[in-house]
Amino acid sequence: MGKYGAFKRDFDFSGLSPLEAQKMLGYVELMNQCMDRARIAANNAVGNYRNYYCRYEQKMEADLTLANYLTC
To answer: Which of 63, 10, 55 is nearest to 37 (CA)?
Structure first.
Protein backbone atom coordinates (compact mmCIF):
# COMPACT_ATOMS: atom_id res chain seq x y z
CA MET A 1 0.00 0.00 0.00
CA GLY A 2 2.88 2.38 0.49
CA LYS A 3 3.56 5.08 3.03
CA TYR A 4 0.12 6.66 2.89
CA GLY A 5 -1.94 3.53 2.48
CA ALA A 6 -5.00 3.15 0.32
CA PHE A 7 -6.15 6.76 0.60
CA LYS A 8 -3.23 8.41 -1.21
CA ARG A 9 -4.57 7.48 -4.62
CA ASP A 10 -7.86 9.24 -3.84
CA PHE A 11 -6.26 12.67 -3.40
CA ASP A 12 -4.72 14.98 -5.97
CA PHE A 13 -1.77 16.73 -4.35
CA SER A 14 -0.80 18.71 -7.44
CA GLY A 15 -1.54 22.41 -7.30
CA LEU A 16 -1.39 22.53 -3.50
CA SER A 17 1.03 24.66 -1.58
CA PRO A 18 3.55 22.72 0.54
CA LEU A 19 1.65 23.67 3.70
CA GLU A 20 -1.68 22.52 2.27
CA ALA A 21 -0.13 19.27 0.99
CA GLN A 22 1.38 18.59 4.43
CA LYS A 23 -2.01 19.21 6.06
CA MET A 24 -3.71 16.88 3.57
CA LEU A 25 -1.12 14.16 4.22
CA GLY A 26 -1.86 14.52 7.94
CA TYR A 27 -5.53 13.83 7.24
CA VAL A 28 -4.59 10.82 5.09
CA GLU A 29 -2.44 9.40 7.88
CA LEU A 30 -5.26 9.96 10.39
CA MET A 31 -7.75 8.15 8.14
CA ASN A 32 -5.34 5.25 7.71
CA GLN A 33 -4.87 5.04 11.47
CA CYS A 34 -8.65 5.01 12.00
CA MET A 35 -9.11 2.27 9.42
CA ASP A 36 -6.31 0.18 10.93
CA ARG A 37 -7.82 0.49 14.40
CA ALA A 38 -11.27 -0.45 13.10
CA ARG A 39 -9.74 -3.50 11.40
CA ILE A 40 -7.97 -4.53 14.61
CA ALA A 41 -11.22 -4.27 16.60
CA ALA A 42 -13.19 -6.15 13.94
CA ASN A 43 -10.63 -8.95 13.79
CA ASN A 44 -10.71 -9.17 17.56
CA ALA A 45 -14.49 -9.74 17.49
CA VAL A 46 -14.35 -12.57 14.92
CA GLY A 47 -15.80 -15.77 16.34
CA ASN A 48 -17.36 -14.05 19.35
CA TYR A 49 -21.09 -14.42 18.78
CA ARG A 50 -22.15 -12.86 22.09
CA ASN A 51 -21.10 -9.36 21.04
CA TYR A 52 -22.22 -7.62 17.88
CA TYR A 53 -19.46 -5.02 17.98
CA CYS A 54 -16.06 -4.50 19.52
CA ARG A 55 -14.57 -1.19 20.62
CA TYR A 56 -10.88 -0.56 19.90
CA GLU A 57 -8.54 -0.49 22.88
CA GLN A 58 -4.83 0.30 22.84
CA LYS A 59 -4.11 -3.09 24.41
CA MET A 60 -5.40 -4.77 21.24
CA GLU A 61 -2.75 -3.04 19.17
CA ALA A 62 -0.04 -3.85 21.73
CA ASP A 63 -1.05 -7.53 21.74
CA LEU A 64 -1.06 -7.63 17.93
CA THR A 65 2.38 -5.99 17.78
CA LEU A 66 3.75 -8.52 20.28
CA ALA A 67 2.22 -11.45 18.39
CA ASN A 68 3.72 -10.21 15.12
CA TYR A 69 7.09 -9.75 16.80
CA LEU A 70 7.05 -13.27 18.20
CA THR A 71 6.19 -14.85 14.86
CA CYS A 72 9.07 -13.15 13.01
So the answer is: 55
Comparing CA positions, the residue from 18, 21, 17, 27 lying closest to residue 7 is 27
Cβ-based burial of 72 (10 A; exposed 0-12, middle 13-18, buried ≥19): exposed
φ and ψ at 56, to 5 degrees? -65, 140
C-alpha 20/C-alpha 60 separation (Å) is 33
Flag whether pLDDT at 10 surpasses 70.
Answer: no
The whole-model pTM stands at: 0.63
Residue 72, CB-side half-sphere exposure with 13 Å CA sphere: 6
DSSP designation for 50: S
> Do residues 4 and 29 lie in contact, with contact meaning Cβ atoms separated by under 8 Å?
yes
Secondary structure string (H, E, C) spanning 7-23? HHHHCCCCCCCHHHHHH
